[in-house]
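Hmm, what's this shape?
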Amino acid sequence: MKYIIILGDGMADEPISSLNGKTPLEVAKTPCMDLLSRKSEIGLVHTIPEGMKPGSDTANLSVLGYDPKIYYSGRSPLEALSIGAPMKDTDIALRCNLVTLSEGEAYEDKTIIDHSSGEITTEEANQLIDAIKKEFDNDIFKFYKGTSYRHLTIWDKGRVVDLAQPHDILGKIIGEYLPEEEAFKDMMKKSYDILNEHPINIDRCKRGLNKANSLWFWGAGTKPALRSFEDKNNKKGAMISAVDLLKGIAVGAGMKVIEVPGADGTLHTNYEGKAKAALDVLLKENYDFVYIHVEAPDEMGHQGSIKDKIKSIEYLDQRVIKPVIEGMEKSDAEFRILIMPDHPTPIRCRTHTDDPVPYLIYDSKINKENHYLYNEKDAIKSGNVILKGHTIIDRLFREG
């Protein structure tokens, strides 16, 4: 038996008036998920433990079977594992986004326009981080390159500080959300002076793209310690994702990390490459389990784009789920597949919420029939509710 999780990050949403009270998941044309849903278990799962922030970090730990109450030590330390940034037990890791701030005002009076700087390319971002490293790298703070707008800072002998998540405050004046820690506030202010007129940003502006004109620190945490996925589940697992958070979780759990060329976490990521890589690791390398993470629905939710969020779900259905199902059926291998988001990223608020999310579990050897489709409303109607998100993987692994 082979096991597959296909996770559409932030795919769940709320009813939207311009969609006649439907969600993007309901409106999207998803013939593959529609067909699977008629033969699957449909339900709701709570991925965010009570009292914890609804992040992709806590939610994806849950989906992989790691109780965030036990295993979560912060988002950035997980990303440090992926990037290969060394961490001592006394270090603190922090995410440092390249964000877009408004121009013309004093720094405290600026508005945060875009947490992803228009999904800046990794190649462009690396040149900007080089400029930051030249100015700020020292014995206390070290900067490391990540993917696109997502980068990392290691703070020697630091402490976990409460920092605002940039995707939570889009469109707001940043003054009241700046760090209390003077060192971070000072670096953020100086970063604007370094980045706003950098040649990369001048060129982006000429092309009508958002500038990546400031650092934003958030997600502080300590060095993580995850139990081996294989020891925990008696299954050899692999991770396919464009983002360092997921790759870092996989590294910490001792899973194989598969790099797919062209996988960049955007709407135009290499969907087909991810599907092929999943089939290869399951059927050619004989792994038991693969986790396919697609970031695009979350990014479109943060951008507030209904059209592109719908498109990202359709791409997931036709360019990932369909070829994976077809490839598994062609191989004659028995398989079970779980399709779900980690959390909602509603268009309404353009950030994460802790509402439960719909899940679908399909078993290739069970001829199940039901009348539910895969969406938020039918998941509620099903009456199936999993209260502890970290147990859903046990549901996937439990046959019958």
